[in-house]
Amino acid sequence: MAGLHWCVGNRLLISIYDEKWVPLPHLLRITTPPRLPLNTRVCDLITDSGHWDRELVNASFWQHEADAVLSIPMGYVLRNEDRLVWHYEKTGCYTVRSGYWLAQFEIAKMEMWVRLEQL
Questions:
Q1: d(CA 52, CA 77)
Q2: C-alpha pair distances (Å), 103 with each of 15, 32, 80, 113
Q3: Is 109 in contact with 50 (CB distance < 8 Å)?
Q4: What angle do CA 22, 2, 70 make, to 5 degrees?
Q5: Separation of alpha carbons 42 and 12, rounded Å
Q6: CB-side neighbour CA atoms (13 Å) of 28
Q7: Backbone angle region of 90, left / alpha / beta, with phi > 0 → left and psi within -120 to 50 → alpha
Q8: Are residues 65 and 31 in contact, defined by beta-carbon separation less than 8 angstroms?
Q9: What single-letter DSSP state applies at residue 119?
Q10: How far apart are CA 15 and CA 41, in angstroms?
Q11: pTM for the model
């Protein structure tokens, strides 16, 4: 759903390839071609001692994505549950204002594609 992305918590719910969860501008998702099974979850990237498996993360993703994953603080991850947040507000909470902005942006984007197709 447009506007939502995962805030990594206990890492049990988030699929590494299907969900928006990586703190990267714009996409918020892994774009590296899959090197792990498609059903791999964020919890599979964490060792039994509760730290990122740096070797696995670095071997599985392009460097900029691996760096972004490893930048997620584990203290936060271990204390909170995974949750969906609204990308267009710093608080992570949906507002009518930001929803309206996103709707207008999507309409403008569709209108641009229609004009391009008519060329």
A1: 10
A2: 27, 29, 31, 16
A3: no
A4: 5
A5: 7
A6: 18
A7: alpha
A8: yes
A9: -
A10: 4
A11: 0.59
Sort 91 into a burial class: Cβ within 10 Å, 0-12 / 13-18 / 19+: exposed
Q: Which residue in the block uniquely carries the two structure tokens 């204002």?
A: 97
Q: Which two tokens stand for residue 8?
A: 């990594």
Dihedral in degrees, nearest 10, Cα atoms 84, 90, 93, 95: -130
The residue extents of the domains of the chain are: 4-87, 89-119
pLDDT digits (tens, 9 = 90+) for 62-91: 999 999 999 887 765 555 666 776 666 677
Quote the tokens at residue 67.
Answer: 């760096």
* Identity at 58, one-letter amino acid code: N
